[in-house]
Amino acid sequence: MTPDLINIDQTYDRAIFRENRLDGREFDGCVFNQCDFSGTTFSGCTFIDCEFIGCNLSMAQLPNTGLKTVAFVDCKLLGIRFDACDDFLFAVRFTDCTLDYSWFSKKKMPKTVFANTSLKGVNFEATDLTASTFDHCNLDEVVFDQTNLTGADLSTAYHIRLDPERNTIKKAKFATDSLPGLLEKYDICIE
């Protein structure tokens, strides 16, 4: 089933779009249940108030795609270049997802919620994550460089490694267990 150019309040169940091109489509209030979008190109598409549940979007291409209040729940999103998305009203939420090796560099995404999500190797270089929440998230090998984490809550995140001198972390919350990852560059022992 190929979506129309404009799709409002539609539900897509177990649809397979693998390695297709969906150019210039608009989805407003749509729900995608267990759909396979792996390798799909969404060039110039817009998603407004949409929800992806149990979907595979690994290696999907999102050039100039608008993600405006989009929730991803239990989705596989490996290697996605979110930095290629349209910046206008960019707002996403991730719950129980695998976002490993994806890119958000230079995105403005304050108050973003990442809950129970694996972010292994994700690039947040020069990203604005002000007041964002990383609730029980795996941050192994995440790139934080010139990242704004002002007021962010990382208190339940784990495998955190970041340089406080290269990132803005004022009022950010960290667990005591995270101290070694914050002080790693100083080559000191914390016992």
UniProtKB/TrEMBL annotation:
**Top-level division of the source organism's lineage:** Bacteria
Quote the InterPro entries the UniProt record gives: 5peptide_repeat, PA_immunity-related
Task: Return the protein name.
Answer: Uncharacterized protein YjbI, contains pentapeptide repeats
Which taxonomic lineage is given here? Answer: Bacteria, Pseudomonadati, Bacteroidota, Flavobacteriia, Flavobacteriales
